[in-house]
Amino acid sequence: MGTFKTLEIKESVFENNNIQADLLRDELKEEKVFLLNLMSSPGSGKTTTLVRTIETLKDEMNIGIMEADIDSDVDAHTIAQTGTRVIQLHTGGMCHLDADMTRQGLNGLNTDNLDLAILENVGNLVCPAEFDTGAAKNAMILSVPEGDDKPLKYPLMFSIVDVLLINKIDAIDFFDFDLDAVKQRARKLNPNITIIPISAKTGEGIAEWTDWLRKQAKAWNQT
Predict the structure, then answer these.
(1) Beta strand ranges found along the chain (DSSP E)
(2) Where in the numbering of this chain does the CobW/HypB/UreG nucleotide-binding domain appear (predicted)?
(3) Packing angle between helix 46-57 and helix 206-222, nearest 10 degrees?
(4) What is the pLDDT of residues 163-184, one digit of tens each?
(5) Residue 12 domain-assigned?
(6) Does 205 map to a domain?
(7) pLDDT tens-place string over residues 14-28
């Protein structure tokens, strides 16, 4: 039998990405740009939440948005209507962004004079959780129609985020969704997680969410 070499490529890829992510974070720290990585399933309301966020913070922060999708530019058009700086990122079929791809996006966006940059990651709860983008903080949205069992099915995602937005809370009466159970399951995986119920449609909880984001960005830019 012939001999062959086994390459542990998964570990190698993650290790290199982590190095690049740390370098990017250091650069953004020097530039005083706060980068938020926003993740969720498709249809959870990421773009609508971003529009609400921009409307609340645009008069006090210079904001830039990176819209990542496998294809299409629908979300970028939506964000552009707010007057906010935005760039569309096409991943060429990849289901996530890594640190190098995020850097390319930031270069295309142009971070000059930005206080807050938000990456709307590709919509799924698996791949994006595995790759450090170089963001200062990670956020995710779980929408009520998705069900309260998602922390059990996708534990890594809930383990690595700093804040969980539970969206479409205005529709909770129409779904078998146990809000207390989600909170308990998420905090078991991540005791330090901040959980904020919101409705991007009605505006419920948006003030609490943007206050959290404002404080995080201020702390990042001052230290």
Answers:
(1) 34-40, 63-69, 85-90, 116-120, 137-143, 163-167, 194-197
(2) 38-196
(3) 70
(4) 999 999 999 999 999 999 999 9
(5) no
(6) yes
(7) 889 999 999 999 999
